[in-house]
Amino acid sequence: xxxxxxxxxxxxxxxxxxxxxxxxxxxxxxxxxxxxxxxxxxxxxxxxxxxxxxxxxxxxxxxxxxxxxxxxxxxxxxxxxxxxxxxxxxxxxxxxxxxxxxxxxxxxxxxxxxxxxxxxxxxxxxxxxxxxxxxxxxxxxxxxxxxxxxxxxxxxxxxxxxxxxxxxxxxxxxxxxxxxxxxxxxxxxxxxxxxxxxxxxxxxxxxxxxxxxxxxxxxxxxxxxxxxxxxxxxxxxxxxxxxxxxxxxxxxxxxxxx
Length: 258
Description:
The protein is 79% helix and 0% strand. By secondary structure, the chain is an all-alpha fold. It starts with a helix and ends with a helix.
């Protein structure tokens, strides 16, 4: 009887987390302004550049196909993770919904966990069309084991950008959050060298962007040695530090003002 009594609160707590996650995902997927760009833009740009623009080059140079697959996959998971967390959190703060949730008899971390899980799920959903396209056409010149290893790293790589989204959502207003998210995200997407090779004079600054480190981990997981310029241990350390820093700032801000 005692064991049964102790298990009920745990089950109820897990049920609350599950409900929060389900509702957060439903809300995001029912927002065309979020869902359509996040899920269609990465695969559309991958089709344009990897097949239409550089199709002949990719056919001659397998590393070019791997480079484009890695870059656009990083774009898919990170962009969806960031924008799934940042604007909605900022809007909820501005409207006082977080204060209301704190007054409810629910686990205090359920809503935050729901946003992070939704960010990971949205990043994975945005990446899946690119994965299917690359695997079906052979454009990435990768084996099934390489796809699996790289996909696992890409899924885990959503977490630093979820942390960035939570931090920006905790610091900015609802109306300004999308602009700040773009300002924080887009420069790194281009300056990290994920999309196209950079001139040697710009190589020094690539290590400042989390996109670059995730891209390097993806290639390391897939065993693509030609496109790696940093040790996986260093990339993991940088991404962990970035995640911890963003999370600490976000929790400090949310704890103070909500």
